[in-house]
Design brief:
Blueprint lengths: L4 H29 L8 H13 L3 H20 L1 H22 L8 H21 L6 H13 L3 H19 L2 H21 L6 E8 L2 H12 L4 E7 L3 E11 L3 H11 L4 E6 L16 H11 L1
Antiparallel strand pairs: 1-3, 1-4, 2-3
Helix pairs in contact: 1-4, 1-5, 2-3, 2-7, 3-4, 3-6, 5-8, 6-7, 7-8, 9-10, 9-11
Length: 298
């Protein structure tokens, strides 16, 4: 299959953004958090705990502990996700080793929490914004969301609370509180960097290729869409699609739509609360749904 020049340029930009974010995140961890024994959440946090207890290199631990999560996630999220995640973690691991040999910028806890949290949020936000991943717990949370409809944000938060509880037992309560504060700062900055990265999002899509886009969204994301008829003042009759999804699926959604209809209008907004059941399955679109979409196209 021939890849267009535009697609190649987009992939190069994605990998450049992911690499930059991974370097920034590694800098924050080695220059601010590790010297003060302050933890990030997720697998990176577990790696810092193991590093503290055993002295094993943090760069190697992050790769080893993340690998099973990424392999599991790649089965449902595609080969491109796997390539980007592996690339991000390799860059992240290399620069953890590089920055680990440098003189630490500060050993003041308050400075480490504030500046480390902000810089780490910028790095992690860039990685996620361009379709990569630094922490395997996020992929597991997405898979649990697909299968059991467990909220991604709550799953990650529960996992991190368990990690910070372990930190309190092993390293002391003050380290756990510093780590928790860093986690909240990182999360807020990450939301700012990755535009519109609330846990739940709503996408409204106006397009002439509703049938194909709906099928791709259903097959790749397992998300159903609501089809509505609309009429533009200038453009005339249009099909309006409405879909609720997680923040980690926004990149994939935009990629699906742009590959089919580059002129499609997409509006993404925050969803503060969802009441009722949202239909969400994986597999091929049901025949009766496809028939309805065909009727709308007509």
């Amino acid at each position: 299959m021939k890849i267009s020049k535009k697609r190649i340029i987009k992939l190069l930009i994605d990998f450049l953004g992911i690499g930059t974010g991974a370097v920034i995140a590694a800098f924050a961890i080695e220059e601010f958090l590790v010297p003060c024994t302050i933890l990030d959440g997720g697998v990176v946090g577990i790696s810092i705990i193991v590093n503290h207890l055993t002295g094993w290199p943090l760069s190697i631990l992050t790769v080893l502990l993340n690998t099973p999560f990424i392999l599991i996630g790649s089965r449902k999220m595609g080969k491109l996700f796997l390539v980007k995640a592996v690339y991000a973690m390799i860059i992240f691991s290399i620069f953890l080793a590089v920055f680990g040999r440098m003189i630490n910028l500060t050993e003041q806890y308050l400075l480490a929490v504030c500046f480390g949290g902000v810089i780490l949020g910028i790095g992690a936000g860039l990685v996620i914004r361009f379709g990569g991943c630094l922490d395997g717990t996020e992929t597991v949370a997405i898979l649990l969301n697909k299968k059991f409809k467990l909220p991604v944000g709550q799953t990650v938060l529960i996992f991190n609370i368990l990690i910070f509880s372990a930190v309190g037992i092993i390293m002391g309560l003050d380290r756990a509180m510093y780590s928790l504060l860093t986690y909240f700062i990182t999360s807020k900055v990450l939301d700012i960097v990755e535009t519109g990265m609330e846990q739940t999002k709503a996408a409204m899509i106006i397009t002439d290729d509703a049938k194909i886009i709906a099928e791709r969204i259903y097959e790749r994301l397992g998300r159903t869409v609501t089809i509505m008829e609309g009429e533009g003042l200038v453009s005339g009759k249009k099909v309006v699609m409405y879909c609720v999804l997680t923040r980690f699926e926004i990149y994939e959604l935009k990629d699906i739509i742009k590959s089919i209809d580059a002129s499609a209008f997409i509006a993404i907004s925050d969803v503060s609360e969802i009441i009722g059941n949202h239909v969400k399955k994986t597999g091929h679109i049901p025949p009766e749904t496809a028939a309805k979409l065909s009727e709308n196209d007509k």
